[in-house]
UniProtKB/TrEMBL annotation, chain A:
Record-listed E.C. numbers: 7.1.1.-
Protein name: NADH-quinone oxidoreductase subunit J
Reactions catalysed according to its record: a quinone + NADH + 5 H(+)(in) = a quinol + NAD(+) + 4 H(+)(out)
GO CC, any one term: plasma membrane
Enzyme class, spelled out: translocase
Topology with respect to the bilayer: Multi-pass membrane protein
Automatic annotation (TrEMBL), chain B:
The enzyme's E.C. designation: 7.1.1.-
Predominant localisation class: membrane
InterPro entries: NADH_UbQ_OxRdtase_chain4L/K, NUOK/Mnh_C1-like
Keyword terms: Cell membrane, Membrane, NAD, Oxidoreductase, Quinone, Translocase, Transmembrane, Transmembrane helix, Transport, Ubiquinone
Protein name according to UniProt: NADH-quinone oxidoreductase subunit K
One of the record's GO cellular component terms: NADH dehydrogenase complex
Subcellular location: Cell membrane; Membrane
Superkingdom to which the source organism belongs: Bacteria
Gene that this sequence comes from: nuoK
GO process terms (BP): ATP synthesis coupled electron transport
The protein's enzyme class: translocase
Protein family per UniProt: Belongs to the complex I subunit 4L family.
Source species: Terriglobus roseus (strain DSM 18391 / NRRL B-41598 / KBS 63)
């Protein structure tokens, strides 16, 4: 069942990501990206990361993509015109992308025996809830980075307000 | 029982689609969205390795990446709005000067 789930949602993921690449209108790209993020949430869940699956839906698809959609509508962004772009992006970029993909796939296939297999649910099988395990580490070992992120978010709020403010 | 390398290859494919979209797209908002796609691909790699090592530290790293991505989206979209106010365009090819 896990194999079927993986292949269904991996296919949805890749097709939506390609849709993001080929759509001309930014709002269509944004909605394809929401589909990618939702199917990634299901894949996280099969890997035993229930907290991250929920956070993915709430933070990424719920907050970040809504922000993107608001900005697209606010700026009334139309279809992009296809200019040629820079030549360097095509001549160096396309072989570069293919090279990176080939290198990564070769490495993963080469190391596939040491990587092992994923069992359904992960931590759930041992009777330990993912939420409890995460919060124990987050509020003991990683307490300082967790508190620093609150300062980061505060600075980001101030920066966004200052940057988007109308200058008089 | 799904091999871990399936997840890693899926992440690699998503990452490369993200790079491709970053290079090909000409709308600055779509370019920004392809960065989010690349971040998601890396997050999938973190979750897969966290599952493989039976450790939650990888998942916490993904949590921090999500927080930073949210902050980055807020600031980046504010910058895009400021650019649109001064240039009246979202095309990255016509935004090539630091100052008008």
């Amino acid at each position: 069942m896990q194999t079927a789930l993986f292949f269904i949602f991996a296919a949805i993921c890749v097709v939506s990501a390609l849709n993001l690449l080929f759509q001309r209108h930014p709002i269509n790209s944004a909605l394809s990206l929401v589909v990618v993020m939702m199917s990634l949430a299901v894949i996280y869940w099969t890997l035993g990361a229930e907290f991250l699956a929920a956070a993915q839906v709430i933070v990424y698809s719920g907050a970040i993509m809504v922000l993107f959609t608001f900005v697209i509508m606010l700026l009334n962004a139309g279809e992009e015109e296809r200019t040629r772009g820079s030549k360097a992006a095509y001549f160096a970029g396309v072989p570069g992308v293919v090279g990176v993909l080939a290198l990564l796939v070769y490495t993963f296939l080469h190391e596939r025996t040491t990587l092992g297999y994923a069992t359904f649910g992960g931590e759930l099988n041992n009777g330990v809830s993912n939420m409890a395990a995460i919060s124990r580490v987050l509020f003991t070992d990683l307490l300082l980075p967790f508190e620093v992120t609150s300062i980061l978010i505060l600075v980001a709020i101030l920066g966004a307000v200052v940057l988007a403010r109308k200058e008089n | 029982m799904v091999p871990i390398y399936y997840y890693l290859i899926l992440a690699a494919i998503l990452f490369c689609i993200g790079i491709g979209a970053f290079l090909i797209k000409r709308n600055i908002i779509t370019v920004f969205m392809s960065i989010e796609l690349m971040l998601n691909a890396v997050n999938l790699t973190f979750v897969a390795f966290s599952h493989m090592h039976h450790a939650v530290q990888g998942q916490l790293f993904v949590f921090f990446v999500m927080v930073v991505a949210a902050a980055e989206a807020a600031v980046g979209l504010a910058i895009i709005i400021a650019i649109f106010r001064t240039r009246q365009t979202l095309d990255v090819d016509s935004i090539n000067l630091m100052k008008n």
